[in-house]
């Protein structure tokens, strides 16, 4: 079994995942609601929204979609969870922290802790909460 994170956005999914692909690398696959076989059953105003997107980084997946307000899918924001990145070395932790936290809000700056060589908590500009953790045992880089 694998457990993957699935996020929901309110019309910002494509912008968010283009940004994540730039920061994290990997391959991006995206389907718009207007490209689905069900496009005729939804208002045209939702056709540009994302029905499903998948960012594949190695054997890891980050997935998401946009909501369709007015079609029984109200948007309530992303809350109560974080996407956690376990990184191999300090330079990678620093790079990801700088990229992903840009224009967001930082709850805890990237710093050493008693459990990690580096750890940070922040919310990106799309409202997604992130944690970056670089274990003490990880290569100091």
Structural features, described:
It is a single chain. The chain folds into 2 domains: 5-66, Signal recognition particle alu RNA binding heterodimer, srp9/1; 83-135, Signal recognition particle alu RNA binding heterodimer, srp9/1. The longest helix has 12 residues, at 13-24. A 4-stranded mixed beta sheet has the order 1-4-3-2, covered by helices on one side. A 4-stranded mixed beta sheet has the order 5-8-7-6, covered by helices on one side. α1 runs antiparallel to α2. It is of the alpha/beta class and 141 residues long. 17% of the residues lie in helices and 37% in strands. This is VOC family protein.
Task: Write the SSE topology.
Elements: E1 5-9, H1 13-24, E2 27-32, E3 50-57, E4 60-66, E5 83-86, H2 90-101, E6 105-111, E7 116-123, E8 129-135
Parallel strand pairs: 1-4, 5-8
Antiparallel strand pairs: 2-3, 3-4, 6-7, 7-8
Helix pairs in contact: 1-2
Radius of gyration: 17 Å
* Lateral arrangement of strands in the main beta sheet: 1-4-3-2
CATH architecture of the largest domain: 2-Layer Sandwich
Shape: elongated
Helices and strands: which structural class?
Answer: alpha/beta
User: What kind of assembly state do the chains in view correspond to?
Assistant: single chain
User: Number of domains in the coordinates?
Assistant: 2
Q: Helix fraction? A: 10-25%
For the largest beta-sheet, the strand count, sense and barrel status come to: 4 strands, mixed
Mean pLDDT: 92
Task: Give the beta-strand count.
Answer: 8
The third-level CATH topology of the largest domain is: Signal recognition particle alu RNA binding heterodimer, srp9/1
Distance between the termini: 32 Å
SS strand fraction: 35-45%
**CATH domain class of the largest domain:** Alpha Beta
The SSE string, one letter per element, is: EHEEEEHEEE
Low-confidence stretches: none
The number of helices is 2
